[in-house]
Amino acid sequence: MTLPTDLPAPPSPGLSESEVAARRAAGRGNDVQISTGRSYARIVRDNVFNFINNLFYVLATILLVLGKPLDAFVVSFVILANTVISLVQEVRAKRLMDRIAILTRPTAVVVRDGSPRQVDPSEIVEGDLLYVGPGDQVVVDGPLVGEAFLEVDESLLTGESDLVPKRGGDRLLSGSFCMTGSGYYVAERVGLASYANQLTAKAKGYRRELTPLQRQVNQIVRVLLLVVVVFQALVWTRNVLVDVPFVESVRMATVILALIPNGLVLSIALTYALGAMRLLGKDVLVQQFNAIESLSNVDVLCTDKTGTLTTGSIAYETLLPLAAGEDEAQRLLAVFAASSREANRTLEAVREALPAAPAAVKERAAFSSARKWSGLVFDGDGEGAPRGTYVLGAPEMLAPALAAGPAWQPQAEEWAGRGLRVLLFAGRPDPVPFAPDGATEPVLPEGLTPLALVCLSDELRPGVQATLEEFRAAGVELKIISGDNPATVAALARQAGVHGLDGEGAVVAGPDLERLDEARLGEVAERAVVFGRVTPEQKQTLVRALRSRGRYVAMVGDGVNDVIALKEANVAVAVQGGSQAARGVSDLILLRDTFSPLPYAFREGQRILNGMNDILRIFMVRILFKASIIAVVASLGGFPFAPRQASLMSFVGAGVPAVVFAALAVPGPVPKVNLFRRLARFVLPTGVLMTLMATVVYLVYALPAKADYLAAHPGAAGGALLLFAYPRAQTALTLFACFTAILVLLLAVPPSPRWGGGAPVRGDWRIAGTVVLLLLFVAGVLAVPLGRTLFEITPLPWWQYGLILAWSYLWLLLCQWVWHGRLLDRWLGTERDPLARR
Fold first, then answer.
1. What DSSP string describes 27-51?
2. Which of 129, 478, 681, 757 could staple 111 via S-S, CB 3.0–4.6 A?
3. Is 256 in the same domain as 291?
4. Does some domain include residue 489?
5. Cβ neighbourhood burial of 421 (10 Å; 0-12, 13-18, 19+)
6. Which residue in 88, 592, 571 sits closest to 307, CA to CA?
7. In whole angstroms, what is the distance from residue 470 CA to residue 460 CA?
C-alpha cells in the first residue's frame, strides 16, 4: 500500500506523538504478535524425535547393547542423514516464509498531529485515527467516523462473500478489506483485543497444510505401518517358536521397519522446498505450499489486460466534445477529476493532463467494478465551481441513462478498434442524489447529457509476445477477462500476439454472458479468448464455469474487483503492487508486478510433479519387492536381508536416485491419468517379477546350503540355520535386489525409446550415467574387504556376480514385455494412457 496523494480531509488531527508514546507505554499499542509457525526448537523436536525415528533409536540402542555396534552405526547413520536433510529443508522453508510475511504484511495510514503517514500495524495505538480506501485491509477494530460509506469484504472472518455496507458509526473488523469507498476509523480494539487476533489466538498451534500428493503418500505410509506391525508380529512369533537368537530378531525388526518410506516423505518436502526457492529466484513468492503442486496442473490462465498485456500506465490522449464546447468539456472534466478522492489510474491520467483546482462536492458515488462509473454532485459553491450532477464511466453502462444528444458511437468504436480506452463524460445541470429514497447503493440518474468522449491509451508491456509464446510452450491457454471494452481488449491482444481471436465467438461482452444458462456459459468460457465489460461476479462465474468443465484454472489479479475470482481459481496469483485484498487471498505473489515469470512458474510446477512421479515409481517398486520377499523367504524359514544389506539396497535403489530424479526432473504436461493406476501399471510388473526372480535366486543358494549344513549338523534348529546356512543366499539376494533397483532407473526415466514402455521417454542420458556409477559403486563394495564388511557381504565367485547381473537384466526385459504386450492395461483401466498405446 502506498500513501494516497489525495486523501480526504480527516475529521480530526488525530493523536499527537506524545499521546502515542504515553499510550504505548501504558500497554495500549497494537504490538502483540501471535506466531502461527513452528519455532526452531519445535522444528528440531519434530524432525529428530518423530515416531519412526524413535523406533529406530530404540532398535539401534538394543543392537549396541547386544554387541552389534556396526549394525547400530548403520541404522543411526541413516536416521541422522535423513534428519539433517529434513532440518535444513525446514529451516530454509521457515526463513523463506518469514521473509514472505514481511514482504506481504499490510500497512496502514494513520493521522497524527494532523498529518497522514504510512506505518506498520505494530505502530498503531488505541485511539489512532486511520484511513482506509479501496483494496486496503482493516488492521484493527474500530468505528467508522464521519459520513463515509464503505463496502467491505469480511469473508476471511465470516466465510460470507457478500459485501457488507458500512456507514459512519458502524464498526470495522480487523482482517476485513475495503472494496469500495473510503473513510476514516478510530482504533478502538488493538492487540489481542482485536477480532482478528482473537480468532488467531483460538488456533490450536501450528498446523501443516498437506498437498494432495502428500496426502496420498501419507495414505501409503499408514498402510505400510499396518503391514510392518503385522510382519513384526509374525516374524517375532516364528523366531520364538524356532529359537532364533534375540539379537537376530532385533536385526530383522530393523529391516522390516525400513519398509516405512521416511525417505519418500522427505523427498516430497525437499522437492517442494527446492521449487519454492527456485521460484523466489524468479521473483515469485509462494504463500501456499500446495500451490507449487497445483501449478503443474494449470492449463488455463485467466488475467486482466492491465499489468499483463499492458504496463498499467494509462495516458490521456484526447477528448471529443459532444453537447459541450471543447474548452467547457475539458474544464468540467478537469474539475471532476481534481475533486474526486479516488486514486485510480484513469483519474490520475486526467489530473496530470488537465490540472485544475478541486471544488466542493455535495455527494459522491465511488467507482465500482460492477457499475463501471463514478459520479460527483456539485452545488456550485465557490468561484468557478460547477453546479450539477456529473458521471464518468464506460459508455455502454451510461447509455441507458442518456438523453438525446450527439452521436458518439462511431468514434468510440473507431478508438476501441485501435486498442484505445474510451470513457464517456456526461451530466445534467441540476444536483440529483445518487441514492434517492434511502437506497443503499448509488443509482445512475436519468436524463444525462453526453458532454464528451474521452480517449486514453495503454502501453503494451515489453516482451509480451515472448511471454505468450512461453505460455503456449508450457501448454497453458490464455483467457483475457477485463472490465474494458471488448474491442479495445481484443485490439491490444492482437498487437501482443494472442492467438485465436479471429474465430467465431472469440470475443465476448459481459452483458451477453448474463443471458446464458450454465451449460451454454461453459461452452462460451471454453471457446472465447477475450471477455470485455465483465463485472467481478462475472469473472468469478467464468472461472467457475471453466473449472466445472475439468479445466485447472490460475487467475491473476491485482485489484479488489479480482478478489472473488481469485478465491474461485485453483491457483490465485497476485502482484506485489496490487491491493492488499488481492494479495491476502493469493497463493503466489509476483514481486515485480509482471506476469513474465508465470510461464517459468508453471513449468516449475510440472517439473516438481514429474520429478515426484519418477521418485514414487522407484520407491513403490522397492517397497513392494521388500514386503513380498520378506513374506516369501520368512515363510520358507529364512530371512532375506541383514540390516546392513538392506541399507546398501536402500542407498543405491532409493537414496541416490531420489536426489538425482529431483535434480534432473524436467517440465512438461502431467498426464491426466489416475496416479495410483499409473503407478500400478509400472510397479506391479516390476515388483512382482522382481519378487519371483529373487525367490529363484534365494532358493538356488539357500537349499543346497541348508542341506549341507543339516548334513554336517543333524538336528540343527532354525536359529542356527539363519546364522550359518543362509549368509550366501542373503548375499546373492542382496546383489540381485541392488542390480534390479539400479536397472529400474532406466525404466522409470527412460533415456531412449529402447528402455520405454512403463514411463515417458525422457531422453536424458545422465540417468544412464547414474546407473553406470551405481553399478561401479556396488562393484567397489564387492572388491574392497572394508566394503564387504561394512555391508555384510559374503564373498562369492566373480562369475556368479556376472550371472546375477545377467539374471537382473533378464528381469528388465520381462518387464518391458509385459508393458509392450499390454497385459495389465485392461485390468488396470489404463488403456487410454498414452504409454499403453505405444
1. T-BS------SPPHHHHHHHHHS-H
2. 129
3. no
4. yes
5. buried
6. 592
7. 17
The per-residue pLDDT for 836 is: 54
- Distances from the Cα of 772 to the Cα of 6, 441, 581, 654, 775, angstroms: 69, 73, 54, 15, 5
Q: How confident is the model at residue 200 (pLDDT cuts 50, 70, 90)?
A: very low
Residues 620, 550 share a domain: no
Pairing of strands 183-186, 129-132: antiparallel
Q: Which residues, 6 or more positions from 13, have their beta carbon under 8 angstroms from its beta carbon?
A: 111, 112, 113, 114
Residue 363 is placed in which grid cell?
Answer: 455527494
Residue 745 covered by a domain: yes
CATH number of the domain within which 250 lies: 1.20.1110.10
Judged by average pLDDT, the poorest of 153-167, 207-221, 373-387 is 207-221
**Residue labelled with grid coordinates 503418500:** 217
Q: Using CB atoms within 10 A of its CB, is residue 799 exposed (0-12), middle (13-18) or buried (19+)?
A: exposed
Cα–Cα distance for residue pair 30/191, rounded to 1 Å: 4
Mean pLDDT of 572-577: 81
Tell me, yes or no, whether 353 and 248 share the same domain: no
Q: How many CA atoms lie within 13 A of 242 on its CB side?
A: 22
Sign of CA dihedral 595, 596, 598, 599: positive
CA distance 405 to 423: 16
pLDDT band at 203 (very low <50, low <70, confident <90, very high): very low
Residue in 314, 303, 349, 316 with CA at minimum distance from that of residue 594:
303
What confidence tens digit (pLDDT) does each residue in 401-446 have?
A: 998 778 888 999 899 888 888 999 999 999 998 877 666 678 899 9
| Count of positions (residues) in the chain | 838
Give the active site residue among 136, 304, 484, 614. 304
DSSP per-residue codes, 253-269: HHHHHTTS-HHHHHHHH
Bridge partner residues of 311 (DSSP)? none
The yes-or-no answer on residue 304 being catalytic is: yes
Query: Are residues 473 and 578 located together in one domain of the fold?
Result: yes
Q: What pLDDT is stored for residue 451 in this prediction?
A: 93
- Write out pLDDT tens, residues 448-460: 999 999 999 888 8
Assign residue 539 the CATH number of its domain: 3.40.50.1000
Residue 327: domain span: 310-460
Give the SS3 label for residue 762.
coil
Task: Give residue-wise pLDDT tens across range 52-76.
Answer: 677 667 777 876 776 777 767 766 7
Same-domain status, 610 and 759: yes
CATH code of the domain containing 334: 3.40.1110.10
The DSSP line for 194-217 is SHHHHHHHTS-S--PPPPHHHHHH
**Spatial distance between the Cα atoms of 314 and 477, rounded to a whole number of angstroms:** 27
| Cβ atoms within 10 Å of 511's Cβ, excluding its own | 14
CB count in 10 Å sphere of residue 2: 9
The reply to whether 612 and 480 lie within a common domain is no
Percent of the chain with pLDDT over 90: 22
The structural domain count of the chain equals 3
> How many angstroms separate the CA atoms of 429 and 328, rounded?
13
Write out the E strands in 289-352.
Answer: 300-303, 310-321
State the pLDDT at residue 7.
73
Co-location of 486 and 450 in the same domain: no
- Cα distance between residue 444 and residue 735, in whole Å: 82
Residue 226 belongs to some domain of the structure: yes
User: Contact 621/686 with Cβ under 8 angstroms?
Assistant: yes
* Strands laid side by side in the 300-303 sheet: 284-286, 588-590, 571-575, 553-557, 300-303, 477-481, 530-532, 507-509
Q: Are residues 475 and 585 in the same domain?
A: yes
C-alpha cell at 597: 515469470
Whether 268 and 210 have beta carbons less than 8 Å apart is answered as no
Task: Output the nine-digit C-alpha cell for 230.
Answer: 503385522
Q: Is residue 75 part of a domain?
A: no
Q: Which amino acid is at 394?
A: A
